[in-house]
Amino acid sequence: MPGVDDFDQNVQFPLLSDPPNIESAMSTLVDGVVPKLNMRFADANERAATIPAPVAGMECFLIAEKRKEIFDGTAWVTLTPGGWVPITLDSGYSPQSGSPAYRIINNSVELKGKIRRTDNASFPHAASFRLASLPTLIRPSEERTFIVATEWAADLYAWMTVQPNGNLTAVLPPAGTSPIGAVARWAALDGIRYPLV
User: Fold this and answer.
1) Torsion-angle region of residue 107: left (phi > 0), alpha (psi -120 to 50) or beta?
2) What are the pLDDT digits (tens) for 155-196?
3) Contact 101, 85 (CB under 8 A)
4) Is the pTM above the cut of 0.70?
5) Pairing label, strands 144-149, 93-95
6) CB 132 within 8 A of CB 87
7) CB 109 within 8 A of CB 194
């Protein structure tokens, strides 16, 4: 009968009194230790296929997503910033500078970059318009609204809204704000951060 580690982690190891079978003894030891290590998977899909029933405390690094996660007993929670993932913009919109992108940090989403109209025209005023449909992975459980910088940062700004259905929308103040005739041809996503739960 194998022994168990002194730290109550249920890692079994062979005893001298066990029947000789090195393959079985080492398999038991390895299978007991590996789930307690920081496992590595190509992506979240490979992890789900390999660990269909994760246990609280399991850790892994997802290579494609470039992030470390831990299973909290209910869901996988991101511990480290993942790599920046480009946001696919709606037709008629393109990056102004710095590709619009998102990343997940500690179960929160962070956005970056600037968005403009593809024809470089001014955004409409006093009317909501959609810039993108965000992936399901980063949609909030409730609507989140932010004030963001635009081209005339001292005079104009935009309300940026992230909705549970994934819509990323913006609204600029009514035309005629000071300075008269000011235009805003881009809006920044920098500073937008919201929880996923």
Assistant:
1) left
2) 678 999 999 999 999 998 876 555 556 678 899 999 999 998
3) yes
4) no
5) unpaired
6) yes
7) yes
